[in-house]
Structures are given as structure tokens and as C-alpha cells.
Amino acid sequence: MATIASENVQTRDTVKSSRSGRHGRGAPERGATLRGTTRPNWLGGVLSFVWLAIVIIPIYWIVVTSFKSQSVYFLANPLAPPTEPTLENYQLVIENDFVRYFANSVIVTVGAIVPAVLLSFLASYAIIRNAHRRSLRFMNSLFLMGLAIPLQATIIPVYLLIIKLGLYNTLAAIILPSIAFAIPLSVLVLSNFIRDVPKELFESMRTDGATEWGTLWHLAFPLTRPALVTVTIYNALAVWNGFLLPLILTQDPDKRLLPLALWTFQGQYGVNVPAVLASVMLTTLPILVLYVVGRRQLLSGLTAGFSK
Question: 233-262 b/e with 16+ CB inside 10 Å = b?
């Protein structure tokens, strides 16, 4: 019996040693594999820094040059910081009816974005909640077709239509086409976002006795707020920086928007570059503030509506 017991002990020791040997040999291999998969991506890092430089250097040049005088700009290194910073360029911009151009841009942007986002939200809700209707499916197809039509291809028909309506050289001539071109993309984003809302929530609202309008404003509106912020910021940026519509549909200096105001600093034989860049800085500030305020909703709205 003692012999049998000793043989069993030896057998167990042999099995343990073989298992530990296998684990010992396997651990370095896994460690080597992990070290091999976590190698630094030097090429990606270098390209990232190159792209960062491409983006940062022009912004740095705009900011630095806006604080230089016109005489110093042509003599000093363009990328060198100003030895004697000055605010005369900003003063010149403000004195050349910048406040009026700024007010016109605000009126056009707000007057175009608020109706566009509201109409897009109502249309998106109707399309998703009544997808079985052919008329609404046809309207959705029209909205998608609108994404394929660029503004430049329709500028002549838009111009003739504005002339027929008697709106030429007015801010309304810019607002109405801006609304039309903002709706297709807004409907696409909002429709995908509303489609992701569980149908059980709509059914529970209907069971509790809520009307369609109550469901729209108390359920769909709060849940789609990130998408609404997304389309609002995107379309506001497009309208604020719009150049073609103000150029074609307005003529008087009193109706100019900020992008056209840059012409004020362009003479027949030269351009006041520091003043132009100071105007660019002042024009960019409102959009930058809007992005900082709604950046979280903007990022979530860009991704959550296309999760399925």
C-alpha cells in the first residue's frame, strides 16, 4: 500500500510540474504578443503633428497680424509677433459700419435658422410617426433629393424668383433661400434621431391620453435636443459665412453682411491685410462662442442619430 501511495504522489507531482511548465512557457509568448501589438505608431504621430501645424499656423498668423499696423506688416516677418501691438485695425473695422453689418448677419441668421429648424423638426416627426403614408414618404424623398442640389446650380432661378417677388436688395431675399437650403440636411439628421426613440415611449404617452401635439413637445422635443442643437449650429455656421446669396441678391451697402464687409478694406490698388484679418477675428467670435456653449450637444447629435 505504501508503494502505491508513493507512486500516486509522484504521479501528481509530475502532472503539476508539466502543467506549470506549460504555463511558464505560454506566459512569455502572450507577453511578447501583447508587447508586439502595442508598438507606437510613429507614422500616425508624425502625420498628426503635421496636420496640427497646418491648422494652427494659419490661425496664429491671423491673430498675430491683426495686431500689427499696415506699415509693419510689409516690413516684418509675417510669423513674428508684433513688437508694438496695436488695436487700430479693430478700431478701423468698428468705425466702418461693422455694427450694422453684424446686425444684418444676426437678423439673417436668426430669421433663417429658427424657421428652418422648426419646420424640419415638425416634418421629421410627421415622416417617422406616419411612415406608412405614401405622401410623407414622397416628401422625405424630396428632402433627400435636395441634398444633391448645390446652391450654385440654383442661383439663377433663385435670383429670377426673388426679382418676381419684389424682394431684391432686402434681407428677406437672403433669408428665404437660406431656409430652403437648410431644411434637407436638418430633416435627415432629425429623422434618424427620432427613429431611434423607442416606440414604447410614444405608445405610453398615447395610453396616458396625450395628444399628438403633446407627444411632440413633451417627448420628442426633449429627446431630440442634441440633434436640434447640432443642426442649429451647423446651419447657423453656413448662413453666417454665406457669401454667394448676399453677393447676388443684395446691392446697397446697408444690406451687406459680414462676409461682404471685407470688401470695405480692399482698395483699387491694395488690400489692408491687418484690417481684413481683424474683421475676420470679429466675425469668427460669435460662431466660436456658439460652438463652445453647445459643443457637447453637437458631438452627441452627430453620432447618436446614426447609431443603428
Answer: bbbbebbbebeebbebbbeeeebbbbbbbb
